[in-house]
Amino acid sequence: MASLGAFEYDKRLNTVDALRRSIANRLVYAVGKDLRSATQRDWLFAVFYAVRDRIMDCWRETRAQVDDQDAKRVYYLSMEFLTGRALTNAMLAADIYEPVRQACAQLGADFDALIDLEPDAGLGNGGLGRLAACFLDSMATLGLPGMGYGIRYEYGMFAQRIEHGQQVEEPDYWLVNGYPWEFMRPESSYTVRFGGRLVPQNGNSLWLDTEDVIATAYDSGVPGSAMRSVVTMRLWSARASGGVNLDAFNRGDYIQAVEEKNQSENVSRVLYPDDRTEHGRELRLRQEYFFVSASLQDILWRHLRNHTGFEQLADKVAIHLNDTHPALAVPELMRLLLDEHQLDWATAWGLCTRIFSYTNHTLMEEALESWPVELLTRMLPRHMGLIYEINARFLAEVHRRFPSDNALLRRISLIEERGVRRVLMANLSVLASHKVNGVSDLHSKLMVDTIFSDFVQMYPERFCNKTNGITPRRWLSQANPSLSALIDSRIGPDWRRDLDQLARLRELADEPEFQNSFQLAKQHNKRRLADMIARNPGVVVDPESLFDVQAKRMHEYKRQLLNVLHIITRYHCILAQPQADWVPRTVVFAGKAASAYYMAKLIIRLINDVARVINNDSRTGGRLRVVFIPNYRVSLAEIIIPGANLSEQISTAGTEASGTGNMKFALNGALTIGTWDGANIEIANNVGLENIFVFGNRTEKVAELRGYGYRPRDYYEDNFELKCAIDRLAEGAFSPEEPDRYRDVVNALLESDHYQLLADYADYCDCQDKVDDLYRRPAAWTRSAILNVAGMGAFSSDRTIREYASEIWGVQPLAVPQPASGS
Ligand code: 26W
Q1: 287 CB within 6 A, ligand 1
Q2: Tens of pLDDT along 200-236?
Q3: Residue of 473, 474, 553, 585 marked catalytic
């Protein structure tokens, strides 16, 4: 083990011999099998337990240090943690990957096969959930006292199958075989209350006759790099409270009693598979309150274990809201402090505004959460009352400072009055937080200029930027062993914890030998990806061709359709000039569409139809292939991303808050083709404008077009190739069995084109030609790719988390105790 950092650890446990004995032991005594009867799954569990055993000491030590040092902790509240698989990550963190592999070989277990058997923990939709997972990894790596709180969904993100070109969703019952990484903590259970009625009592409220659900904690450990520390991720699972069913039970209505039990356990059943809109769904609101209430009760319990009263609460606790989904934490903390602990309003509110901070992840109006007052009143009457009170006091203050501005009062209120009255969760979050951040420079600027401009007048010092990052452990060290080994051989292994060291690769960018090895690593990863594609969806692709990849959620604003328009154009051009020197390309798509998102699903179908026509047309001479890889998820991303040459980051400028996939691709040596949006801009600034393909209108131009009447048809009429592409689509060239299939796509493009694909089309195609030109010059391409890797130091989530820790949360890394002398 390289550096033990926080604790002393018996290295003799990490030899191949010791690990072999451990695994065999765990197989017999924890799994209950033996060498003869063990299935692959049994082996997976045995290995899991043996590895987990090697995390436990550090985990316990971390908890003890936080307690002993009475350190300020940060609690990261997130509805989503998209952690993916845990085993390989843990083996790398504990530096036992190779010995475990050898131990398995000695036991006759197929290491690679069993690693591949681990289900992904897909408890998230996409960027926001994956960011939360990277953040826990970075907290553990930096030794920051913190915890993640979320929901232990029984069903994670749905699995996607493609049937006749169309997406079919299947439930992801990821816990079906049990999950060996988690510990149930029944002693950490809390009652979460819903509904009921209020009875006024000396200024506060009694909340009676509620419908109760029990939240029970399940902990898993997130080990940091080199086991600097282990952070706890605590997920809540719902259990019926005895009380609810007893009446029916006593009446002898056993079935009714059990049915009710099921009802209340529904709250942690399923992740909402939509990354933008789930407004108005009652169960979603229940989920939000359920996990927030349990987390806050737990946080206060932990505080009171070591402190008397709440005087120091804000010095010891920081609570972060990952988007507005946990915003009910604000009235819940008020309720607990006022009603359960008898603090006065000013003290309680003062604590709130020192404790909370909030990250905004999107500016899109349809994604900004709001809940009907009627629903909140019914489900959480006390909280609705508190929100009214918070709002009244706030509006009084606004009125004091801007006495003549009634329009401002209306805009800034926590409650939207037009139409059905709704609580605006973003406004509530901003008001209660001492810091509010966006997730890239551009996004943070737009955020203060648009959705929060009124709040900026009131509280200018609150707003800041924290550009997203990704963990280099999973996204380079784990996902790309070939490139990692090459980098290790030149600059040593420390980049894993200090990503800025990658800058030292700059001086190797022109060295032929390094270039050669760099190309070999990429080739290796492309073959790995090609093998996977050959298995599913079963298309043979040429690993020598340029791998052009767009992997992310399917969304109109992300413009997968623009990519398709370019593919169709390229196809036409190849047919028109079959003799020309075309750079062979494989265009890869992957991503899920929300099940109710008609356009996104139609675009998946279009991609598959276009793929079928092009891949079966021998006239292309195999110089263009299109592939849709089903069921994109973290474990697939770990194979897809290292195999890419070109990374598609082509959102309409101003719409992608940051993007984090863009960082993963660049870190793995893909060149980006992208718009001037989100973190693409910062990537460009770090890798050098000459090493990235930028195209398209910028934010101001997009806004200007929107403002002065954007006419997509003009672009269509003026551009012959664009017109051809759209006409062929409209004629059913890709769906001869149903020529009308893409009429809605065509109409959307020609009639409104909300995301301005047509405005960027010509520039995009030109830019793609430049991509080909560079790819024809392997040395120049490789040089650029190396400079991309070398420039990615700033995008480590360690950097991001350091900034949060010092500028928002005020938490410090745990002091590493010095080993006692003589030991
Ligand atoms: C179900 C409701 C809902 C609504 C919005 C669920 C999830 C969301 C998120 C805001 C969507 C999301 O993941 N946003 C992405 O956040 C990433 C991390 O900051 C950014 O990199 C992406 O640009 C942003 O789209």
Answers
A1: no
A2: 888 778 999 999 999 999 999 999 999 999 999 999 9
A3: 553
Q: Are 609 and 735 in contact (CB under 8 A)?
A: yes
> 72 with 144: CB under 8 angstroms?
no
290 dihedral zone (left: phi>0; alpha: psi -120 to 50; beta): alpha
Counting ligand 1 atoms within 8 A of each CB, the residue from 77, 81, 125, 128 with the most, and so the one to mutate, is 128
Which structure tokens are listed for 722? 């664009």
DSSP state of 246: H
Under 8 Å CB-to-CB from 111, ≥6 apart: which residues?
100, 101, 104, 105
Tokens of 291: 């996990």
E strands, 267-404, are 317-322, 356-359, 370-372
Cis peptide leading into residue 537 (ω within 30°): yes
Residue of 462, 473, 664, 741 marked catalytic: 664
Altogether, the residues listed in the chain come to a count of 823
Q: Within 13 Å, how many C-alpha atoms sit on residue 528's CB side?
A: 19
Rounded distance between C-alpha atoms, residue 134 and residue 141, angstroms = 11
Whether 41 sits among the annotated catalytic residues: the reply is: no
Q: Per-residue pLDDT tens for 33-68?
A: 999 999 999 999 999 999 999 999 999 999 999 999
pLDDT at 2 over 50: no
| CB distance 130 to 634 below 8 Å | yes
Please say if 558 is a catalytic residue: yes
Atom of ligand 1 nearest to the CA of 128: 13
Q: Are 490 and 505 in contact (CB under 8 A)?
A: yes
Question: How far apart, in whole angstroms, are the C-alpha atoms of residue 327 and residue 779?
Answer: 51
Q: How far apart are CA 341 and CA 134, in angstroms?
A: 35
Strand partners, 166: 163
State which amino acid sits at residue 745.
Answer: V
Residue 438 beta carbon below 6 angstroms from any ligand 1 atom: no
Left (φ > 0), alpha (ψ -120 to 50) or beta: where does 822 sit? left
Amino acid letter for position 94: A
Residue in the block written with tokens 């529904």: 266
Number of CB atoms found within 10 A of residue 69's CB: 13
Residue 819: the pLDDT is 58
Tokens representing 653 are: 């400028």
- Those residues with Cβ within 8 angstroms of residue 307's Cβ, 6 or more apart along the chain or in another chain: 313, 316
452/75 Cα distance (integer angstroms): 25
What amino acid is encoded at 485 in this protein? A
Give the count of beta carbons closer than 10 Å to the beta carbon of residue 155: 17
Say if CB 95 and CB 473 are below 8 A apart.
no
pLDDT in tens, 716-745: 999 999 999 999 999 999 999 999 999 999
Beta carbons of 447 and 635 less than 8 angstroms apart: no
Query: 301: how many CB neighbours lie within 10 A of its CB?
Result: 11
Residue with tokens 């950092």: 5
Q: Is 125 in the pocket of ligand 1 (CB under 6 A)?
A: yes
Distance CA 760, CA 128 (A): 27
Ligand 1 near 367 CB (within 6 A): yes
